[in-house]
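User: two proteins, same treatment. go.

Assistant:
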Amino acid sequence: MRLFYALNFSPRTCSRLISLRDELKIASYQGSFTLDDNLHLTLVFLGECDQRKTATAINLLAELDCAAQTICFDRVGCFRRADGDIWWAGVRESKALNELYREMVKQLSQTGFQVESRRYMPHITLGREIICAIQPHAIDPFYEQVTSLELMKSERRQGVLTYTPIHSKPFSLDSNLDCI
């Protein structure tokens, strides 16, 4: 099965992301837009995993020690592609989030996973193959307190891409929250 680690969001934050996606949809001539239930921030993509790798991924998540964090959404941007762009909601640069990513990659690499080595750019995909009339832009910032990390399964159910949490790790609550 295809797996990835992700941060999922509260209904309030999902509503804000849906509004951004819908604004993009209105301004677009074409595209495939992310379903409401699929809005998330990928921390690390694992790809196809057998039972052994799935168990390892669950164990790694269970051993993770991380405090609850606050992330800030502050822009809408895109990755340019010839067949249409990938548009996303961007997360403000964060030392804590980057450290969590590096630690996860280190642990995964030590247990035999092949993980991407490119620079981590945290974002929430709003749509793919988008051709639209707007440009990347800043938005009024909004925040989410992230209190858990999920191991997610990606699959097609009746032709619909569906993401399902298969294991969750609550973060410890700290009265001195770091912003990520």
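Protein 2:
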Amino acid sequence: MRLPESCREDLKTPLGVLLPDAGITKEQVAGMIRPGSYVVTVGDRTTERMIQFGIVPSLQITDGLEKRRIRPHPRLAETGGADDDVKEGEGRGAGARHAGSRVEVKTTVMEVSNPPAQITRESVSAIRKAFAARPPVRIRVDGEEDLLVIPVCVYAPDNTVVLYGQPDEGLVVTPVTDEIRNKTRGIMSHMG
């Protein structure tokens, strides 16, 4: 599915509350996420920031880019190590165990291809599969992850909060409601 020009303007308006980039705090973000929420981050910087805040997203979607520039994928929360060699089904199934005073959470990592200005069937399938898996799950995108906010909002379970970056403005915090689902379904339907 390719984003038509007619929908581009709609996507410039944040789907949720925009927190200006300067001065975003852990307390501010945590205060906008109800306890027990399924937290989704779309974007490398957003994912990295939440992990630094100690908020491990249930679903993390990254592409190794920030403002179209290559950057390392955010480190996985459980090890602090890079996830470059980890693939789905290679022993990173979700679960938690204590190692001393630190809690280790295993992350399932999936990889998909998603070209810029598109949403591939492969990406939608991975998102749906991620929602059915035990969190946390990371989807690493070869291409661009920006538009994947749309299917995330369409298929997210109840009590989901989606966080993504609004370029040069800040962090968008979007509790998924029926209104958000309907809006994003409409955008997807225009994409064909």
